[in-house]
Amino acid sequence: MTRRPIRTTNLRLAGWLRRNSEHYLMEAAQADFARQVGRSLPVGPTGPSALFWRRVFVPVYRRLPWTARRRVMSRMPGSHRRAWHRPPERRDPAI
Amino acid sequence: MPIRVVVVGGGAGGIGAAGGVKQAAPDAEVTVFTEFEDVAYSPCGIPYVHGREIDDFASLFLADKQAYVDAGIDIHYETRVTAIDLDRRTVHVEGPDGEIGDIPYDRLIVATGFDYADPGVPGSDLGGLYYVKNIRRAMEWDKVLDTVNRAVVVEASPLGLEMTTALAHRGIETHLIDPRPWPLADVADPDIMAPVEESWAEMGVIMHFTTKLEGFLGGDAGSVRAVATSTGELPCDLAVVCTHKQPNNTLARTAGLEIGSTGGLIVDERMETSQSGVFAAGDCVELPHGVTWVPVQGLSGSHAYAQGKVAGVNAAGRERRYSPVYVPWAMVAGKWMIGGVSFGETLAKALGIPYVVGVADGISRARYYPGVRKTRVKLLGEPGSLRLIGAQMVGGEGIKERADFLAMAVRTGITIEDLAWMENVYSPPIGALNEPIALAAQNALSRLAS
Predict the structure, then answer these.
(1) How far apart are the two ends of chain A, measured CA to CA in Å?
(2) Degrees to nearest 5, angle at CA B238 with B236 and B242
(3) pTM here?
(4) Cβ neighbour number for residue A67 with a 10 Å cutoff
């Protein structure tokens, strides 16, 4: 089977987006739980880029419904877009 | 003519792959190239030798070199693969004595493992910085540890937790620094980690959370003398760097194999890469998470070995599938076992995954039986269907077995309702009347009802 190669620029962009979104979304979630349990907040990068991810990206991401977030994530290039069978649910008696 | 399979890498993925090929096609010519002096040992056991729980490094070896010769697997030690030519189907190798050559293959399996993320701070080239990976270097570092009075562990990653516990157990004054608010914060929730932190404090560990690494400061001999952090300098004789494990994919990337958003190689369920006839396994690949379908990377040695087996069988021309992962995990940290499946509340919140939760504090044995320990279980379910989607636990025993069980529960679509009324073993020395998993599920249902 011949596969259509994914463009290198798309892969680099996906890597950059994943790295940053993962970092700042985790940081925001940890900050929320830290406040709940009375702990200090996480410390991370500073500067205009960090400000964008914290002040723009995280709030926008959080306003999107889960279905929209899931659609975006599923369209990123990666192993999840190759052939993978989901395990069948076996709810009937075995014999 | 027998099929020629070349495996790049001699870790769990590579050795699993070599075994998988031989299992499926006993007459196959299998050649493994590793840049290290050894294969077939458990690097995950290294912290426990440092911590004196295990007597010696020899115990970590699973088989001697002759065992692979006998199995018909040709392993080339201290041999680096410097290039892959996908068109000509060859790998370019450089041996320990400078000999070079191009080795042809019919099928290739890439199992190049991981590298620790560069701390990205000044002083990263100093002596006295220990990256736990290779067993020969670990043997040398173990002698150094006899002279160390004070150590700093950089980052509370899984290895960071193990090394913190090991060094404290060895009687070394141990400092742990991490920019996050609690240990293992990218994986575990704060309530799960709280008992671990208490036990570390009892063991004398000095924890510095929400503290950023700013540099390593050198002494006269070119070795680290202190770690500079956002909250001040920490003098030390040794720093153990336990940063994130990144896929080691320079070779594969240069060859033109497709890399996913995690930095791991893109593979399908046969562990085949973007190039037909080239397979990959272990820490260098990414796999879809079974619940979110988001690719994940950097799993355990057992994942790597199983992926290697699948890659090897397919490379040999037979058919075997690997599954999306649900990531059961467990480990000892401080005086506790912690573990989980899939994800906890912090990661669910970060991704924005909706969930319902139930938590219970149960016990590991009958309440009157000596050695009984608290067992906290937290279950996350999908709203509406109540299918189990994640779990986290902390306790004195039985955490690994519960994590394995709950991973199968997530995988097969078991619901919180199913778990609330599950059957469980009751035997005073090994199990309490009320299974903590069932209690957590019942609490989730009670919360929903109210």
Answers:
(1) 39
(2) 115
(3) 0.94
(4) 7
